């Protein structure tokens, strides 16, 4: 039996010593399936929401550096929800054996889109922070196709990281805790927990502080609230599973029921991917200008600030330099 590689974030947690999935690790209860049904309902809503975002961004809004990132993030979320929904339907229909047989395939795809979403969200946070700190660079020196090029690179890197994680060590090397496996898994976990996530959080915090203290009265904070809420949801629903998966790999925490771990991991990732379009809509509906607007109007209110805010920041710095 090949090692199952679906983890709490679809990458790290594998059954130890080749334990069969039909033994005690697969005991289920009604409460376990309640999580599955909730995840299925949320996945369906998320597919509809991300589908609407994709439609509006593709056909109704002018492309900006920010909307290109959001478009790629919506694609990653849509794919993750679609694959998750297939897995959840198999569970509901009692077709777990089919999932087991294709665990590497589904796990690979889910992990790849998870990494893509992580990288894109990090880029959104960092770049929006830089647009306020260095507004002239953002408006005048920033390469025109940077968002498109960066997004393409993120997808390639995501696939490479997933290949490394899934095919970097075989079953025997994993069971023996081979040094190569340790290096791969710990290195990728370090990138996520100590590089990408802190960069995302720190840039979002700087973004919030700068807007609150410098330009709060100058323009709406809708765009920044969207970024902050999206980052908070990502941290709350994806980092704890990742940390737990690493602890399980290091044998600090032990898996007693693989099915429960699997479904809760799926649930957390589904919630994270489904939440984004609803964040855009509800935050964009805040205030008098958002009340009664169509979905297109609400999204336009959020995303049009991409150029407006950077222009205001640049003008503000230019005015201060003239005065000096």
UniProtKB/TrEMBL annotation:
Membrane-crossing residue ranges in chain numbering: 34-58, 70-97, 103-126, 147-168, 183-209, 221-239, 259-283
Record keyword Heme present: no
Places the protein is found: Cell membrane
Any Pfam family the entry gives: 7tm_1
Membrane-topology annotation of the record: Multi-pass membrane protein
A GO MF term: G protein-coupled receptor activity
Domain of life: Eukaryota
Keywords carried by this UniProt record: Cell membrane, G-protein coupled receptor, Membrane, Receptor, Transducer, Transmembrane, Transmembrane helix
Signal peptide annotation: none
GO cellular component assignments: plasma membrane
Domain G-protein coupled receptors family 1 profile positions: 49-280
Chief localisation class: membrane
Protein family membership: Belongs to the G-protein coupled receptor 1 family. Mas subfamily.
Protein name: Proto-oncogene Mas-like
Gene: LOC117348017
């Amino acid at each position: 039996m090949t090692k199952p590689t679906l983890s709490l974030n679809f990458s790290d947690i594998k059954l130890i010593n080749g334990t069969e999935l039909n033994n005690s690790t697969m005991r289920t209860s009604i409460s376990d399936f309640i999580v599955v049904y909730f995840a299925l309902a949320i996945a369906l809503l998320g597919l509809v929401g991300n589908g609407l975002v994709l439609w509006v961004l593709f056909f109704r809004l002018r492309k900006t550096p920010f909307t290109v990132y959001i478009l790629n993030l919506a694609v990653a979320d849509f794919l993750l929800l679609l694959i998750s929904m297939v897995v959840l339907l198999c569970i509901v229909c009692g077709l777990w054996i089919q999932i087991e047989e294709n665990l590497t395939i589904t796990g690979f795809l889910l992990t790849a889109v998870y990494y893509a979403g992580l990288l894109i969200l990090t880029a959104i946070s960092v770049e929006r922070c830089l647009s306020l700190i260095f507004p002239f660079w953002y408006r005048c020196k920033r390469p025109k196709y940077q968002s498109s090029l960066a997004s393409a690179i993120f997808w390639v890197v995501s696939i490479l990281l997933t290949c490394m994680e899934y095919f970097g060590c075989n079953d025997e090397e994993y069971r023996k805790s081979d040094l190569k496996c340790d290096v791969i898994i710990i290195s990728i976990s370090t990138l996520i927990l100590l590089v990408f996530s802190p960069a995302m959080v720190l840039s979002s915090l700087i973004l919030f502080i700068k807007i609150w203290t410098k330009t709060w009265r100058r323009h709406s904070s809708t765009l920044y609230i969207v970024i902050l809420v999206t980052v908070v949801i990502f941290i709350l629903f994806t980092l704890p599973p990742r940390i737990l998966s690493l602890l399980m790999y290091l044998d600090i925490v032990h898996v007693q029921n693989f099915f429960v771990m699997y479904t809760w991991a799926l649930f957390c990732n589904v919630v994270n991917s489904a939440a984004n379009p609803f964040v855009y809509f509800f935050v964009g509906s805040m205030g008098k200008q958002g009340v009664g607007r169509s979905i297109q109007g609400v999204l336009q209110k959020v995303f049009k600030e991409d150029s407006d805010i950077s222009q205001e920041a640049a003008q503000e710095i230019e005015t201060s330099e003239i005065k000096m």
